[in-house]
Amino acid sequence: MASYEVGSQVRLSVSFYNLSDALADPTAVTVQYRNPQTLVNTSVAVPGSGGVKDSTGVYHYDLDLPNAGIWIYKWVGTGAVVAAKEDHFT
């Protein structure tokens, strides 16, 4: 499990692929994360709200870490490419 210091900024990245294993854009992309201190779940549409589309099928979101704990995040693509990827770090 990856580990970061409180006060750091962590880049959450994802790549989406179609059924032919080519990079492809979902119709809608969100990244969801849970703050372990407040137990608040946040969902961010990407691109926008700090999320960035780097290229076809490739996205990132920079997350500030105000407190310690196990952070869980999940990327979700819907529409043209339906996929989800969940991960965590401390």
What does this structure look like?
The protein is mainly β and 90 residues long. It contains no helices and 7 strands. Helices cover 0% and strands 52% of the residues. It has strands spanning 9-15, 28-34, 41-46, 51-55, 58-64, 71-78, 83-89. It starts with 8 loop residues before the first strand and ends with a strand. A 4-stranded antiparallel β-sheet has the order 3-2-6-7, with no helix packed on it.
Tags for this model:
mainly beta; 3-stranded antiparallel β-sheet; single chain; elongated; 4-stranded antiparallel β-sheet; 90 residues
> How many E-type strands?
7
What spatial form do the alpha-carbon principal axes imply? elongated
Instruction: Compute the number of helices.
Output: 0
Q: Kindly, what is the distance between the CA atoms of the first and last residues, rounded to a whole number of angstroms?
A: 7 Å
Strand content: over 45%
Trace the largest sheet across and list its strands: 3-2-6-7
Q: What Rg, in angstroms, do the CA atoms define?
A: 13 Å
Average pLDDT number? 95
